[in-house]
Q: What sequence folds into this?
């Protein structure tokens, strides 16, 4: 009987328990994303295996389980419980910041002007190549901890500041090390085609990736040393054109990697059409996506990972979130954390998505939970509060969940607990003495 078995955690009597979805939907779109499942006066149980065992009204759960069986009980009266947030696009492994470039951008320099002058990605590549693996890991660890405190329990993490095999593998080893040693969930992405290395043409770089990088990744996967989940290419004018992108993505798919790439950011490249054709799991950015590309992505169930921080910081045209939602595209969100868009906080990303991309708060939360999990191929285990899914949760010190988005930058005082697999991995003591406004 479930009531007598040992359980890890009981969250009891939440003012609001935000399921996001409750019928094992792999994603939400259109009306599904606009209306989320919310229970009031509800409780949730996480078992010793780290998975959710029961979700329901507090009195029903109380009758079903004995309090003596729980390792920990948290009274959530007056508080809200939400799924852990999922950040579907980050570049968190690098050395050397680019604060000086922020001043250049404010003075009017474009992204590509800085890039062509040896800044941007090339500046970070130079510093990342010189850094030791331990130096990179220490910085990466601190960044992940900040993401966790801001509510992210699953994060996509890219390589891409090496652009040669040695440094790309160094970055992927750092990501693998964090997967094994940290509580936060990680989906790793090989992004060796993030820029064309100095001294090479795009065609030469493409040939090197296909002939040398990807076979080595396959070898390391078979030996169990590095497990990469996704392959990424920066498909952009002056970087990797459509044909080079196609070749790299197909070669990655052939060794079992999910296609999840940068497309249609600064120029219309027909990246969305290519991704739909290749069976991509997700495409990021899409500020310059075509109408035909939007329709193709909706038909192919290819997620659009929108990055409002990037459009905001680079003063780009905002992605057409409303059109995508209306056409039935699976819309996800990511922070695009990198030296160019220095944001750890998915609550702030959701706020920007609502204000600048005209998403509703329900749509933004769906995009930062179940749909972001789908973009990483993880929505069977993450992204909603359903029996059988991993017990990754947030408890916020407010009687309405919307405060997580409404309070721009307020997550540091709102988030009371971050929980991964039913274990409290962050507790904000300040919340215990604060009242909700």
A:
């Amino acid at each position: 009987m479930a009531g007598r078995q040992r359980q890890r955690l009981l969250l009891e009597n939440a003012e609001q328990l935000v399921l996001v979805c409750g019928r094992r939907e792999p994603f939400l779109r259109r009306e599904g994303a606009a209306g989320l499942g919310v229970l009031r006066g509800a409780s949730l149980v996480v078992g010793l295996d780290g998975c959710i065992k029961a979700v329901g009204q507090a009195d029903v759960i109380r009758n079903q389980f004995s309090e003596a069986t729980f390792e920990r009980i948290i009274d959530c009266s007056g508080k809200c419980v939400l799924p852990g947030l999922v950040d579907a696009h980050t570049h968190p492994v690098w050395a050397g910041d680019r604060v000086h470039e922020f001043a250049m951008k404010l003075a009017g320099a474009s992204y590509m002007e800085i890039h062509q002058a040896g800044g941007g990605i090339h500046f970070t590549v130079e510093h990342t190549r010189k850094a030791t693996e331990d130096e990179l890991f220490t910085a990466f660890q601190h960044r992940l901890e900040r993401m966790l405190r801001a509510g992210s329990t699953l994060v996509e993490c890219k390589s891409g500041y090496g652009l040669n095999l040695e440094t790309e593998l160094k970055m992927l080893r750092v990501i693998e090390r964090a997967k094994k040693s940290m509580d936060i969930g990680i989906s790793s992405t090989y992004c060796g085609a993030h820029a064309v290395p100095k001294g090479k043409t795009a065609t030469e770089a493409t040939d090197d990736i296909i002939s040398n990088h990807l076979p080595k990744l396959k070898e390391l996967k078979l030996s169990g040393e590095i497990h990469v989940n996704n392959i990424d290419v920066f498909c952009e004018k002056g970087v990797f054109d459509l044909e080079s992108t196609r070749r790299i993505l197909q070669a990655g798919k052939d060794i079992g990697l999910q296609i999840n790439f940068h497309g249609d950011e600064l120029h219309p490249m027909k990246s969305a059409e290519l991704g739909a054709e290749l069976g991509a799991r997700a495409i990021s950015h899409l500020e310059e996506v075509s109408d035909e590309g939007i329709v193709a992505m909706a038909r192919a169930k290819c997620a659009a990972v929108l990055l409002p921080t990037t459009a905001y910081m680079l003063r780009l045209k905002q992605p057409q979130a409303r059109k995508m939602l209306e056409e039935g595209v699976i819309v996800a969100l990511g922070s695009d954390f990198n030296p160019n868009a220095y944001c750890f906080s998915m609550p702030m990303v959701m706020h920007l998505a609502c204000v600048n991309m005209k998403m509703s708060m329900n749509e933004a939360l769906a995009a930062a939970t179940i749909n972001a999990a789908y973009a990483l191929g993880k929505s069977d285990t993450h992204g909603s509060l359903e029996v059988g899914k991993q017990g990754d949760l947030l408890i916020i010190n407010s009687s309405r969940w919307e405060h997580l988005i409404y309070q721009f930058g307020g997550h540091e005082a709102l988030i009371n607990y971050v929980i991964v697999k039913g274990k409290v991995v962050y507790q904000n003591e300040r919340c215990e003495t604060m009242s909700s406004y």
Q: What stands out?
A: Residues 161 and 293 are 29 Å apart (CA to CA).
